[in-house]
Amino acid sequence: MTVDELVALLEQAGEPLDYREVWPRLFRMANCPPELMRVLVSDIVRDDERLVWDGPFHVGLGEWHAQRRDLSTVAFTVVDLETTGGTPGFTKITEIGAVRLEDGRQVATFSQLVDPRQPVPAKITEITGISAAMVAGQPPIEEVLPRFLEFSADSVLVAHNARFDLGFLDYELSMLMSRTFPRPALDTLRLARRLLSPMRCSLGALAERFDTTVKPRHRALDDALATAEILVLLLARLQEQGVTTLEEVVRLCEPGARRNYHKIVLTEGLPTRPGVYIMRDVHGHELYIGKAENLRRRTRDHFLQRQAYGARQALELLDRFDILETGSEFAALLLESRLIGKHRPPYNQHGTRVSSYHYVKLTTEPFPRLYATPNRRDDGALYAGPFRRASFARRLVDLLNAVYPLRTCVRLRDASADGEHACLRHDIGACLGPCRGPSNGRYQEIVDQVSLVLAGNGRELDRELARRQAELVAELAFEQAARLQSWRETLDQAVRTVARLGSACRAYALLVYPSRQPGRVTVYGVAAGSIVDERSLRPDELTPDGALELVTGIYAAMPPVPPLPADTIDEILLVSGWLRRHREAVNVVNLPGPDAPHELREAAAAELVRRLPLCAGTAAASAPEAPYGQAAPTVDGTVAGA
To answer: What is the span of the domain harbouring residue 336?
Structure first.
């Protein structure tokens, strides 16, 4: 690449580029130390007036500097929110506090309580002091937000941990006006970490270190005032270091993944076909495994877009990508799941944290009880699940025990041994007391109701909880009503989880996707939610009789039976999700249930033969033989040398 080509590249990008990213295009030198890279690139920048350094790592165009905004001319609106929780949409804003700074001086403040139109949790009241009574009668967010939008007009928003505050503000503004707050925005948390590392950078710690006039106390205006003082001090430090424009400060607040821009060269030459990529460290250990419809584009996205925490951490240790091409995105998704289950890479957040699922068990004892367990046995008991977290299973048990007076003692007491004896749960009506004598069928009635809920029918219980919640709201008992709302959400999630796996285990289908070899397809047979057949063939190889034999073999296959290992459950849910999203695609032939008559099976086989040529028409070209030192993935997801 010539210098003119570098200028053209910057014009096309529209933003400064990390010198470690453009280095491989300027010089054909392998294994060059970053220090030498910078020296050589500096010589180019110094000798061409069109180029300038934009911070310590980025090269930009000189003409862009004329468009930069000097910090002394920028107005800032420092904002802080108090909310009923941490999820925009599900929880709501209760207070907005803001300070407007111009020329480094405070010129106006904004403070307003907001009616969230939902209960304020007791924990939030304990932290902030904002109670349901305080926000009752206050204006709703639909009235407050336009006023704040006017207050912050023509300014740059600033917050401490801006992702939280702007997440709520953007959500509410998008619901109200179908747009978000303007960018760029500054985050004093990220800025402090860049300037003051390794000290603690919480708002309280910074206020103590800088001895701000106003101390944060989890009220919006006070926290915004403290943040504004900290912002002024941090900007003063930056100006002492020669950082004088808003754009330079914004770049300092970029996510940490930008530090690894120079490794983007590892994606050069990667194929643009579907497949799985494995991030490995210098010792060859798996760091992160992902799938892609376009391998080159997806791997480059790790350096160019916001990534999950695990992927960002993997970039720090990344030494190389290993590529396993597949013929289709479905094959890549399947292979990714199997490889994650086999290797358990440390930086994959999905599919690696659960060694076993958890269930809620209703025992078969004379007087059944509930408990959470990671073990599912063939013992005749009723199991609900599986759930990915033991804490959720225990929460469901606590909910059901709170509503239904089942016994919770592990062993029944012998009433004949000591006669009447004290039992607190029985005395408060939380247990029917089967140890005290005949229950006249009442206990079995309760067990039948619990069994319905565990089988996925929670409508009656939800209606009862909703009725109780409405009564509590009418009595202004908001804390208790919030607890019932939490119970209803737990119940809803449990019912959906049970229904999802039940539906997945009833799926029968054929999936046909291009193979890695040209002119061939891979056929996956799904029975009871599990892949029981996987074969590669040419479309003209499959006769109607052969297709019927394939379909018959799927019904004859023995799918896995409970208890299922975690990896098997993961794959069943993966296949079910894919079928749900692609049920109408030409690549999916839905099969009737196992009790369907022979005529329907014949019709499905004929449909398979008809669709094979359509699916083979997009078959991927054959990949070069072992270009990345890896053998093709086998059916069970193992990889030679992996």
So the answer is: 256-343
In a domain, 366, yes or no: yes
Identified catalytic residue from 160, 218, 343, 358? 218
Are 166 and 205 within one domain? yes
Residues 326 and 363 in one domain: no
Is 476 a residue whose pLDDT tops 80?
Answer: yes
Average pLDDT over residues 438-454: 83
CB 223 within 8 A of CB 279: no
User: Which DSSP string do the residues of 78-113 spell out, in sequence order?
Assistant: EEEEEESSSSBTTB-EEEEEEEEEETTEEEEEEEEE
Six-digit token pair at 37? Answer: 């890279």
CA 492 from chain centre, in angstroms, equals 20
Which residues are within 8 A (CB) of 163 and not within 5 positions of it... i.e. 6 or more apart? Answer: 187
What gap in Å lies between CA 480 and CA 468, rounded to an integer? 10
Residues 6+ apart with CB under 8 A from 168: 81, 83, 88, 93
Q: How confident is the model at residue 183 (pLDDT cuts 50, 70, 90)?
A: confident
- Residue at which a domain ends, from 503, 529, 559: 503
Q: Is 525 inside any structural domain? A: yes
Same structural domain, 297 and 437:
no
C-alpha span between 435 and 426 (Å, rounded): 10
The pLDDT assigned to 639 comes to 36
How confident is the model over 294-298, as a mean pLDDT? 91
Q: How far apart are CA 86 and CA 24, in angstroms?
A: 43
| Phi, psi values for residue 527, rounded to 5° | -130, 130
Q: Is 218 an active-site residue?
A: yes
Cis ω for the linkage preceding 563 (within 30 of 0): yes
Output 258 or 156, whichever has higher pLDDT.
Answer: 156
- Higher pLDDT pick, 468 / 21: 468
Convert the pLDDT of each residue in 303-320 to its tens digit. Answer: 776 666 566 678 878 889
Q: What is the CA radius of gyration of the chain?
A: 31
Are 257 and 315 in contact by the 8 Å Cβ rule? The answer is yes
The model carries a pTM of 0.54
Q: Please state, rounded to an integer, the average pLDDT across all residues of the chain.
A: 82
Give the chain's length.
642
Q: How far apart are CA 75 and CA 367, in angstroms?
A: 70
**DSSP assignment string, 420-477:** S---HHHHTTSS--GGGS--TTHHHHHHHHHHHHHTT--HHHHHHHHHHHHHHHHTT-
Mapping DSSP onto H, E and C, the string for 466-504 reads HHHHHHHHHCCCHHHHHHHHHHHHHHHHHHHHHHHHHHH
Q: Which of 194, 219, 252 is the last residue of a domain?
A: 252
Q: Is 375 helix (H, G, I), strand (E, B) or coil?
A: coil
Domain count of the fold of the chain: 5
Phi and psi torsions of 115, nearest 5°: -75, 115
638 confidence band (pLDDT: 50, 70, 90): very low
